[in-house]
Design a protein that fits this description.
single chain, 113 residues, alpha+beta, five-stranded antiparallel sheet, 2 helices, 20% helix, 23% strand, globular, binds guanosine-5'-monophosphate, binds zinc ion
């Protein structure tokens, strides 16, 4: 499972992807296909398929805090930003390793598509 998981491979450094942030159990990288001037992905170092599979509230808190730190370090805190967790098929999740999108640098629309 994790051998073929794209984000597990990024966590292990097998696919080069500069880190923009790291905490004990999570990393943050730039999205390869940014949907906003700033677009980061925050993910756990261990393989967790999606938000629906999470049982560890401390891990979820750590992911949100890293998202917050990355947003702050990229000057998004004052202007605002959006955190999105696409979950499962209807949620539009395409990579089956839990990740938070952190989007900023432009005004977001609502409702999302
Ligand atoms: P999802 O659709 O699962 O919510 O988000 C997956 C995200 O991963 C997409 O925004 C996509 O652009 C990004 N992505 C896919 N492959 C790679 C990759 O190899 N490197 C990076 N940095 N992002 C990727
Ligand atoms: Zn994985």
């Amino acid at each position: 499972m994790t051998d073929s998981c794209l984000f597990c491979r990024i966590v292990r450094g097998e696919i080069p992807s500069p880190l923009v942030g790291e905490s004990e159990n999570a990393i943050a990288i730039r999205d390869i296909s940014p949907q906003a001037p700033a677009h980061f992905l925050v993910m756990p170092k261990i393989h967790v398929q999606s938000l629906a599979q999470v049982r560890d509230s401390a891990l979820l808190g750590e992911l949100l805090m890293l998202a917050n730190r990355v947003a702050e370090e990229h000057w998004l805190a004052d202007s605002g930003f959006r955190v999105v967790v696409n979950t499962g098929e209807n949620g539009g999740q395409t990579v089956q390793h839990l990740h938070l999108h952190v989007l900023g640098g432009r005004a977001m629309r609502w409702p999302p598509g």
